[in-house]
Amino acid sequence: MSEIASKASLESVAPFLPLIYVAWADGELAADEIGAVREAASTASGDPSVQLLLQRWLDPRQPPSAFELALLLDGIEEAVARSATDLDQRLDLAALGLAMAESVDGVSSVERDALMRMQEALGVDGTEAARQLLASGRPGAERYSSEPAFDHEGLADFLDQPEAATRQRVRDVLKRPAFRYLDEPTRAEYRDQTYVWLKLLGEEGFGSLSYPEDCGGAGDTAAFMAAFETLAMGDLSLLIKFGVQFGLFGSSIHQLGTERHHREYLPKTGTVELPGCFAMTETGHGSNVADIETRATFKPESDSFVVDTPHQGAMKNYIGNAACHGQMATVFVQLEVAGHEFGVHAILVPIRDQDGRPLPGVSIEDDGAKLGLNGVDNGRLAFSGVEVPRANLLDRFAQVSAEGEYTSPISSPSARFFTMLGTLVGGRVSVAASSNMAAKSALSIAVRYANRRRQFGPPGESEFTLFDYLSHQERLLPRLAKTYAAHFALRDLGRAYVVSMADDTSDRRELESRAAALKAFATWHGTDTVQACREACGGQGYLEENRFAALKADSDIFTTFEGDNTVLLQLVAKGLLSEYQKQFHNMNFGRAVRYAATRVSGKLKELAPSLPRSVDASVLRSREFEADLFEYREEHLLESLALRLKNRIDRGLDSSRAILDVQDHMIELALAHTDRVVFESFCSAIDDAPEDARSTLELVRALFALSTLEQGRGWFLEHGALEPRASKAIRKEVNRLLGELRPQAEHLVAAWGIPEELLAAPIAN
Amino acid sequence: MSEIASKASLESVAPFLPLIYVAWADGELAADEIGAVREAASTASGDPSVQLLLQRWLDPRQPPSAFELALLLDGIEEAVARSATDLDQRLDLAALGLAMAESVDGVSSVERDALMRMQEALGVDGTEAARQLLASGRPGAERYSSEPAFDHEGLADFLDQPEAATRQRVRDVLKRPAFRYLDEPTRAEYRDQTYVWLKLLGEEGFGSLSYPEDCGGAGDTAAFMAAFETLAMGDLSLLIKFGVQFGLFGSSIHQLGTERHHREYLPKTGTVELPGCFAMTETGHGSNVADIETRATFKPESDSFVVDTPHQGAMKNYIGNAACHGQMATVFVQLEVAGHEFGVHAILVPIRDQDGRPLPGVSIEDDGAKLGLNGVDNGRLAFSGVEVPRANLLDRFAQVSAEGEYTSPISSPSARFFTMLGTLVGGRVSVAASSNMAAKSALSIAVRYANRRRQFGPPGESEFTLFDYLSHQERLLPRLAKTYAAHFALRDLGRAYVVSMADDTSDRRELESRAAALKAFATWHGTDTVQACREACGGQGYLEENRFAALKADSDIFTTFEGDNTVLLQLVAKGLLSEYQKQFHNMNFGRAVRYAATRVSGKLKELAPSLPRSVDASVLRSREFEADLFEYREEHLLESLALRLKNRIDRGLDSSRAILDVQDHMIELALAHTDRVVFESFCSAIDDAPEDARSTLELVRALFALSTLEQGRGWFLEHGALEPRASKAIRKEVNRLLGELRPQAEHLVAAWGIPEELLAAPIAN
Q1: What is the pTM (predicted TM-score) of this model?
Q2: ipTM
Q3: Yes or no: is domain A176-409 CATH 2.40.110.10?
Q4: Architecture category of domain B176-411 in CATH
Q5: Is any Cβ of chain B less than 8 angstroms from the Cβ of A70?
Q6: I want to staple A280 with a disulfide (CB 3.0 to 4.6 A). Which of A332, A554, A735, B129 is the partner?
């Protein structure tokens, strides 16, 4: 039937060509549907040859060939080209046919009617089909751009506070060529390079920032915290090695030791002349530090402690700096003096000589390759009859005299343990901030890519950017909002930490609980965000040059170290229960619970927030609405938890088992508490923000709050705190906020100030 | 005050020692609370010296020292040791004091009363405090063990079907020393080793299993799929290299080519004599294959096609086997014949000579290091005027004659495109199954570790296993259940795929949609599960020897390749809309939507499932209850989506923009649909399972269903499909199921049959 596609014959049926082409090119019309179009065409023309041709073209038993269809399309394109004026974009198939035919012969009213009937029979959206038909290629597209709604530098400076100058110094150092990422180093090379970097940072004075001024430091905890957080913009192995040397090892001396330890060791620690380890975790005991088994026994005849690892499971494990570089370790031990046990204490144990050889009695194993952080030399330490001078006991909270007399300003063993462990809190604060920085790096890359990368789009137009897709906005923008929220909450936490370091009377328990909560919040957020951003960058995100590989692998362990997140959240929940009485820890758990339960019993119902009558944007976006829900959920969970625990303890369960039983509830409470704390920090931060940035930040705050509430809507609906109508309204409002914030997203990530060089992300530029 | 802790003085206040110790050791009692205990002790004894001693011990202004407390504890321990019989575990502090005192002197009724009053004033749980006090060290614990509720081998064999023999052969091969994982190879070494492995598998005949028998194959698609899935127990770089060579490259020849291609190339492909690539994705076009820009133009004078890469963005990218080993590539091109465009076609292009040198006109770049899968040599390919014989066109669906005549059995260009792309479906099915295998590997390690690792516990008892913790059960068991669910759904999908390969008349569109849905489901599940299991193994999970490093890095890209999950879910949703009319694709989207909307309009309310009157376990665990909810959600989402789309199209939006607007809804629908499909597969699989395993599998099915419904409870509550009461009941039932399944967990993972050697997980053994 190739004669039907001859040039002459195509011209004779010109007005019908678009319809015919679409009918077949579609490829999905059933025979009877083609038949219906054919039927509609049956009186299309008075000219029998035209009529015959139309019936032939629309014969379901003899579909045109692929080649004929190609010719047909060519014919249409030629006819369109011939038509004098640009064709209206809103033409449908029938009108397109008419426009084409006019350039040939003109069209009769009979043909016109037939066209309309055929288009109806075809059942497609004629306008869209015509546009697709005419589309040839795609025009190039400009890079997406938008105006910031705020002064960019003003917000960046606000986010850099406090310690903006220190942050800038760290950025400048990291941008130096000496700190360029290595290209596929071996593990040994990577460890060596990280050590070189560490020493450079030591030389720059970053390591000793928090140490006392007379020990080579600057006495400036806030600056140290800021430096650490900013280092997380770069290589995370370096960050962790830095944290081990100056933070964990150095701080253990600083905070658990006394002046003579400070004078002797801190200057050398700050310059990395004395590379050190923080040996707390054992293979058998990670989270449960109270049950570690490494032992130090006082030996009066030599005025020394003898350090021993009783069995393999009690080896110190995952210890940074242990496999290669460490020369001394702060070792956590069970202290035994004169046959009495005094619980966990820290003691300085030399582990290597200056040539790097393990000292007698010290066995060192390499932890080998890890999922990430391979620039850090983690290893295992075991001790066999290692004698260290009595003076090596870090004795701020407990002293042993030459005569073997044990004294401590804290007589309760339990309180002593928690006080010493409290020195970990700085590490938690810092790890949380670093995780959030990993989220910032990932988002900085993914948001830019989302505005540049295009894929799919309407025919004849340039493709959509990825960020035009709602699903893509949903992936990135709530996480961006949460990153802002975490930023402000962590800033408040950091400030509280700095205050507590200067003030012994501050409430450490509250600080520790907040640090635990935000550490879990920020590290899970970091892991989740890095993953989502990798996926949002597709195959590009999988290439190592685009940095997700390193971010993902290196930040993964943040959810585990410095306290496993799940364990931390249980501590948070216990802390909340104890707030009722300010007298709560493991020992008298039952008492706190009962007290709490007595106070709250029967009170639950009064708390329900008054449901708002209207759920329009102004209500949903208001701080009050959001705050009410966050607070209600926390209160309700706390009080129902207390009741459930009381129940179990009344039934005779011991407290450990009662906790096991309601552990899901405890974690839910801790998470709800954290959301509330983070939300409050966000609100108060906005009040301090540059005025021109506030309205944008309020949108970010609303997106954080509403997307968090949306995720938790199951609970709110179950407990009558949201009506279905309000819950649905929240989801819609989240979508609206996504649309409003998309143009600001790139400016919001830029304000984090991560230098281009450190993103090392070709795809984002 | 050290005289108060002398041996004699301690004996004189023996009955009060436990109470005194706890009062101070607690460390948290305020002065007025200690005062209250002291007050209660004020008439404890007629003996003034005893009375004085008690008042001294309980003086808030003079707390005992740490050392005195240690002596006190020693005193208690000695007294307990002296007491003739084993002390009752249920003694409280007062009773303990009495028991101790009896071994000394006996106790007066005055002392007895005072003890009671003091214990009350102390306000602790006396029994628990006494137990803690007496606890010294922890007894060793047996390894957790439990009896399987079913015949283990029977279930394992059932799970191995179909093609159990092939699976066993692959296991046996992978266990050979030659396939041992490399220890920290360089990238070059890893690529070489993977290539060696690939050739070994080729020699064993695994690669050609699906090829026709007269081309060196076994004509057995099912066996090939089983082999691929089982290979995912081992190194995933090998898996992907295997998939590229035999699956993508080989299958493109097999399915897009014709007999002469089969005869010429398949035998060499199966033995890896001809290593090949599958070059579809371009840097600029990953998901949107229709818009790729590589071009092949027919040149009649030389009877050849000329292949060209018009610009850098059109380079083929991420192409496996391209950087090092590939000698030929199936290249997807825009085909141009005699000035006409015929859309995307596949053509065989030699890229390297046998010595591995790129051929003239072919540029090859290395993609370099990646987040994972570094044993696969991904690269970029560009072509500049590369001529290949006309015979190289894979011409099953379109032929070009020497005269430049283009013919195709499928005249619609759109249908032709989708038919050719349909060849990808096998890859999707296989990647989904491999992701689920990654989840199985991760769970196999984490579940065992959870039963072995202990941390924290009640004083004096052995520590709890991690799996005793509800939060740990919540981390692992719903994912275990989902892995079972995915297993059965993927088995059904694999069977349908095998059927479709043998039967040209089968409904490919439905199969493609199901493959897309399950690919997204299984790959997100894999990523999520590997991460959760890594975290559940703490620091141990971070060490490379424990395999999470490789699992996490290597399986990460599964969510992106063979179709980005988000893009796939949109296809699924479009497919569901079109089911109303079986006539739906991009071209006539508007029609399908309108048709769908007409059919459903006003129907939504009738569908609400009748809420069950009772929500006890028998209802919640019933298939009917769960099926109703899954079905209702899918139907409701489908119909409300159709209405929303209709609305937008009626308002004049084109279909692409209408879709953007409701994209979240489309993805939600696709996910809901997938849950329902998976659930149904699970149910019907149980009906075929060995009888003794069914009741356990029903628990697994219920856990999968209820935890999925729990996660989605926000939607059900919003839409009145669940009442708050039922929603809460579901959460409780999930917890009950966790407790019931925990003893079976290790047996359930063992039934997956992943050899110990491949888990390479010291922590799990």
Answers
A1: 0.94
A2: 0.93
A3: yes
A4: Beta Barrel (2.40)
A5: yes
A6: A332
